[in-house]
Amino acid sequence: MAASETSKETILRYAFGNVLSFFILVLIGVLAFSIRLFSVIKYESVIHEFDPYFNYRVTQYLTKNGIYDFWNWFDDRTWYPLGRVIGGTVYPGLTLTAGTIWWLLSSLNIPLSVETVCVFTAPIFSAFASWATYLLTKEVKGAGAGLMAAALLAMVPSYISRSVAGSYDNEAVAIFALIFTFYLYIKTLNTGSLFYATLNAIAYFYMVCSWGGYTFIINLIPMHVLLCIVTVMTSEHFASFLVFIIIHVVALVYYIKGILSPKMFKVAVTFVVSIGVVVCGAVLAVLIALVASSPTKGWSGRSLSLLDPTYASKYIPIIASVSEHQPPTWPSYFMDINVLAFLVPAGIIACFSPLSDASSFVILYIVTSVYFSGVMVRLMLVLAPAACIMSGIALSAAFDVFTRSIKFQLPGATENSERDAGETSSNSVVAQNDVAKTEKNEDAVKERPSKKNRKKEKEKENVEKPSVKSQIKKKLLILPLEASIIAIFLLVLLGAFYVVHCVWAAAEAYSAPSIVLTSHSQDGLHVFDDFREAYAWLSHNTEVDDKVASWWDYGYQTTAMANRTVIVDNNTWNNTHIATVGTAMSSPEKAAWEIFNSLDVKYVLVVFGGLVGYPSDDINKFLWMVRIGGGVFPHIKEPDYLRDGQYRIDSQATPTMLNCLMYKLSYYRFVETDGKAFDRVRRTEIGKKYFKLTHFEEVFTTHHWMVRIYKLKPPKNRIRGRAKKSKSKASSTTGTKRIGTKKKNPWH
Amino acid sequence: MRSASEHDKVEGFPVHFALNLVLVSSESRSKVLLAMARSTSKDAQALLHSFRSAYAATPTNLKIIDLYVGFAVFTALIQIAYIAIVGSFPFNAFLSGLLSCIGTAVLAVCLRIQVNRENKEFKDLPPERAFADFVLCNLVLHLVIMNFLG
Q1: Which residue in A has a C-alpha nearest to residue B38's C-alpha?
Q2: How many CB atoms lie within 10 A of CB A474?
Q3: Alpha-carbon span B136 to A75, nearest angstrom
Q4: pLDDT per residue over A182-194, tens digit each?
Q5: B36 touches A264 (CB < 8 A)
Q6: Nearest by CB to A194, which of B32, B123, B133?
């Protein structure tokens, strides 16, 4: 009677626990979604940054033209005159996901625009990612740790930074695919079922479609399998299997030794050993030959720069120039994962007791992701889920100990302890559903909850009932009552600090759309919408086929918003083409005009922040133009632009710098703004203030002078000879000679 | 020369052989070496026979799966021989053919492990479920292969 009552109570408790977990998960999903909405509230529902504009344009094309046209799309409006095979070079996962969502909604007659779907894809998938983290951590440690880890992932700033509403980039869906793939892998390990293995393969396929970071998975999982094979604890049969083989080999050796003469035995041994060595050597030689035949030993530049962080800066300036490829600073760790940074070691220790396949996998995951995050800021994103899982495990284990201490030391504790002893053994029966509470089970049950163990556990239950009490005394840790109360309070305070930091980071640091800028002044909020102003001007005032040249940062935005053909864009797949544009920007006006004319360019776009103090303008990026251009065209030498090792634009600037196209296009008529031409970003007055443009004419400058558009002047009909200083018309002979020299292509 | 049968050779040989060693002289050492080679081959035959008798004891369904694995590996070897002789164009087709063979062999090995009644780890898994998993995985594998054939 009492037993059935207590079992009924436990069933009720488990039911209550299940329902509570379900509601907590729903709330976590809502939290993950809403914390990413700050940019929509503060600015508007707009796509951010640069790369998302490309994905948005591709999604627009997909929704308008269907999947076959998308798959075979050759885009002739970028990388003029080369074009780009978008169908073959894009990661289709994100685009297909958003396209499917839009198609589903529109077939249900819910009219959402493609832009809205794109903007809100990332928050939705971050909710999915936190649910996947719950599932993964539950497989590793149990439901309590799972809920903790899911709550931490919903808010971690590193993940928020790449998945705010509007950041329509590959990582938005890829992180969900990563965590889900890992969950299915652990589930396959734990259950041994081929069905989960199939699901794992399909989830990995989705990850490969979405992001280049799939190489992390494909290297991590085999490493873990190797680890499992090497360590004995993984399979209970491994030791017997190994010794079985060893015994047979030893028996065979003894037998043969007994039959043959010592000399023949030595011959046989050398024969076997030499054959083995020859086979291994042959395999190794083939491998080495294959790998050595490729110049970079089979690794791509990006992977090499992951292994050796200094590789890119020495050999490939364009990889080194991308801001996301820089190594992170120490404060950025605290900014991005905050409190989790010192909960992770506690989690690693908690994973060691007991060490199973799943916990060894998570340990391997966090160690490798910590290394890679130290190489590139962008890979802090891969560290975030691992840190959340570890911290969830640590916090859950800590709360376990403290609440158990409090529970067993409360005044009504003595009768509770006996009831709990009885409950522990009956729990082992009911504990086979998914929401098993770990603190009761870690003594009685093995760490592989699966339905097939139910029969085994029922037999164990009767044996375990008398020994459970002693087990409680042996294994459970009880701390003093006051210490546990204070400790719980401090942990809650820690969690509150984490939440406050995450909300602040989401609201202030990571919600800027970077296409719209704001600043607070005495008259209130000032909005800088210069980029969209410039792109709108381009789209309304130029011909459809006009080509626009700018630095590669703005290529995606120009094609998406202004709908004009560009020369280079953010894909940066052709270094020589980018170097051509960089050389043109670093050359004097005439040479730059030649280069742009050979590319059929009509307009040149320059971003200038000197009037308002916008620091990411083209003058600050100029050093990359010089370096990349100089890497391909040797007549651009970086020391020509440096004075004392620094790029200067004031009166101490070199003459090459003062005559280059970027300087002229940025500072043309700048002196008319305040009379002194004070550059607010470089904080100095510029060197050359009064000059005229000979080969370009200014056609548009935005309200705050942030974007300036120039048009190439057409070549003159009649050329003045260089010898004649008077303004008379040029003679025909010099004219033809000039036309001849002018038409000669400087690149041959 | 008489035909060797395993039973008498196994027990009687060591004594016989030791006597031979004592009596032989350096000139007839080559004859002894020949006898050594013959003896090692007979031991290999003994080993093979013991393998065969142990294998005969496995149930029929496992033997069918082993046959299937052998067929898949054999097909893979044929493809590799083809590529060595004729060349690897088109590479996509070669890869998909090879991966199809290897993939289905691996899945069959998994099926064999799960269906083997002597395997304690999978005692509670009904063999029908294992076979259904095998079919599902093969479906997914061949869907991918058909797409990759190009």
Answers
A1: A260
A2: 9
A3: 39
A4: 999 999 988 888 8
A5: yes
A6: B133
